[in-house]
């Protein structure tokens, strides 16, 4: 004979009677129809959004948000058309706040937005070839007046230097402490700014004396890769598809762009150079330069420099990395990590 505890029976009965749909259940009432969405959109597209209503609930209205900013409200489960013009490339986080039967619940998804521009392949001719220090693991390359400023990487071997272009010899060099892996540099306001790879530390030097003025801490938990500037702002790559805008006075990262072609993101943007209003960027592990719109991140053009690698004598040379633009000659100087040559090239369509 089984014995029952009346109190347990009553408690169980009360629990069963009080059970309704939980908040988690309600969140499953509605969802974006991800199957109706493209894997990737272009910045010229418009996206029609409606919600799946699996429980046939009566929807009063839906408020749509993009990256937590409210964009529109529709009555019932009406269609919302999201115009992607002017939206930042990369992932756009979408949220729908659904008002139904005296209750409210939200559902989320995201879409990826690429550039609407198909990059052009540019041509180049070699104007001159100069010697380059075979021991230089090049990370940054930039002209200051008629002198090359170069930075190198690897722990215990990192430095910044003024380099004579014609001979390839070092004029003056400043070594980094052993714990730092040097990365990109740029010269602005008579100061050299330098990044380090994974230490989230940068340095500022007087461009004339090369004396260190100060160090600064990155205000984002990112890596340091390449640098350039437009005369007002510094641009800082971090090894992803992002290029950050830095205020040189405060060293704060104030904005970013995501670098995209018409159908994909371009990861591992490395050394940077500002050329006639565009950012020229090395792509790590690719002997190519992407020409990037600094306002949108769209890759307008690409320069394929794989043929230059065959002209390098050093068989242990690493990847192309180093872009320096000379305004006087309107030519670009490119080299690579442990390359024994620097090439002066002229780019044409």
What labels describe this entry?
single chain; Immunoglobulin-like; Neuraminidase; 5-stranded mixed beta sheet
What's the CATH H-level homologous superfamily of the largest domain? TolB, C-terminal domain
Spatial separation of the terminal alpha carbons: 94 Å
The residue fraction in helices comes out at under 10%
CATH class of the largest domain: Mainly Beta
Proportion of residues in β-strands: over 45%
- Large-scale geometry: elongated
Number of beta-strand segments: 29
CATH architecture group name of the largest domain: 6 Propeller
* Radius of gyration from CA coordinates: 28 Å
Quaternary structure annotation: single chain
Instruction: Using the coordinates shown, work out and report the CATH topology of the largest domain.
Output: Neuraminidase
> Count the helices. How many?
3
Protein structure class: mainly beta
Q: How confident overall, as mean pLDDT?
A: 90
- The number of domains is 2
Strand order of the largest sheet: 23-24-25-26-10-29-28-27
| Poorly predicted runs | 6-19
Major beta sheet, specifics? 8 strands, mixed
